[in-house]
Structure formats: structure tokens, C-alpha cells
Design brief:
With 111 residues, this protein is α+β, with helices and mostly antiparallel strands. The protein has a single domain, classed as 2-Layer Sandwich (Ribosomal Protein S5, domain 2), CATH 3.30.230.10. It has three helices and four strands; from the N terminus they run H-E-E-E-H-E-H. Strands 1-2-4-3 form a four-stranded mixed sheet, covered by helices on one side. The longest helix has 17 residues.
Length: 111
């Protein structure tokens, strides 16, 4: 498995519109929404509201979630669209702290 995040693995605005999402799991800072796809790839998108923090913190959070996906693709469900909503930014904004919570989020998911 390649450790890259290709364009085919990112959800675009057109993919998000009109899609029925099912809430799969939730932690203190994240919500995982899943949509079963007919394609044989995993895709991801990150959603974060403006009230969550300033632009630099929001962009850093998006980069951390995408990096987590890039390094842990095998944890995500095959043939699915994954939308990770950020409820709030963790106090310590590092890949380790966000990664631990994202692993917990994915382990709690209802398949």
C-alpha cells in the first residue's frame, strides 16, 4: 500500500453534496460519518467549522487528519467515503495526540 494521499482518495465538494451519511462513531473532538461506496477505494474529507479556531489552527488540524489517513489507510473501511468532522481542536495539537483519538474513533465505529 502506497503511503501517499492521491487525488483519487480525497472527497470533492460534488461527492459530499446529496450524500446520505451515517454517524459511525464519536469522540470528544471528532465525529466519523461513513457512506458506503460502489468504488473500491477509501476516500476521506475533513470538515471543520469557523468557530473552532483561527485559520492556522483549522488548517493544521486538517493536515494532521489527512496525515493520519495517509499513514493508517488500512484502519479505514474499504469501499467507503469517510467524513471526519472536527468538533473542537485538541489542546495539544500534535499528530500523536490527534492520532490516538482518531484510532479510538475508528475502533468504536459501527460497521
Amino acid at each position: 500500500m502506497a503511503l501517499t494521499l492521491t487525488k483519487d482518495e480525497r472527497l470533492k465538494k460534488g461527492d459530499l453534496r446529496g450524500t446520505r451519511w451515517t454517524r459511525s462513531s464519536e469522540t470528544e473532538n471528532f465525529i466519523l460519518l461513513i457512506h458506503k461506496s460502489t468504488l473500491s477505494t477509501r476516500k476521506i474529507a475533513v470538515s471543520i467549522g469557523k468557530k473552532t479556531g483561527n485559520a492556522a489552527a483549522r488548517n493544521r488540524m486538517k493536515r494532521l487528519v489527512k496525515e493520519f489517513f495517509r499513514l493508517n489507510k488500512d484502519i479505514f473501511v474499504q469501499d467507503s467515503y469517510n467524513l471526519i468532522k472536527v468538533k473542537q481542536i485538541p489542546l495539544r495539537l500534535t499528530l500523536d495526540t490527534a492520532g490516538k483519538e482518531l484510532k479510538l474513533l475508528l475502533s468504536r465505529r459501527a460497521d
